[in-house]
Design brief:
With 123 residues, this protein is mainly α. The chain has helices at 18-49, 51-62, 64-91, 98-122. It is extended. It has a domain at 19-33 and 63-122: 3 helical TM bundles of succinate and fumarate reductases (Up-down Bundle).
Length: 123
């Protein structure tokens, strides 16, 4: 009989850390931006198609569900951009100490909500 190999710990063993959660969120926000860009394509195509089509798309985007989708897209855009700047600073070897990594992580999360709220309140 083969010797039983040790199993890697399951996700239930470890507590999620800020760094791992933000990494997953960065990938997810990139996927949201990639698929959500189809909304921009539909909007631009409707703009080129004429007033009737553009009016229908605009009406759909002003619906509460459309507003929720646009809010989620803008939240993903702001988060991905701010976290991208954070990653660029790491490429320049700035902020690599664990304390600085956590500080910049909390800063990105806070700024994401502040910038997104300001964007929606001003527009």
């Amino acid at each position: 009989m083969a010797k039983p190999r040790p199993l890697s710990p399951h996700l239930q063993v470890y507590r999620p850390q800020l760094t791992s959660v933000m990494s997953i969120m960065h990938r997810a926000s990139g996927a949201v931006l990639a698929t959500g860009s189809l909304i921009l394509v539909v909007w631009l195509t409707a703009l080129a198609a004429g007033d009737d089509v553009f009016g229908s798309v605009t009406t759909a985007l002003h619906h509460p569900v459309g507003q929720l989708v646009l809010f989620g897209y803008s939240l993903a855009l702001v988060y991905h951009g701010l976290n991208g700047v954070r990653h660029l600073s790491w490429d320049l070897r700035i902020g690599l100490e664990i304390r600085q990594v956590y500080q910049s992580g909390y800063l990105v999360l806070g700024l994401t909500f502040v910038v997104t709220a300001a964007l929606w309140l001003l527009v």
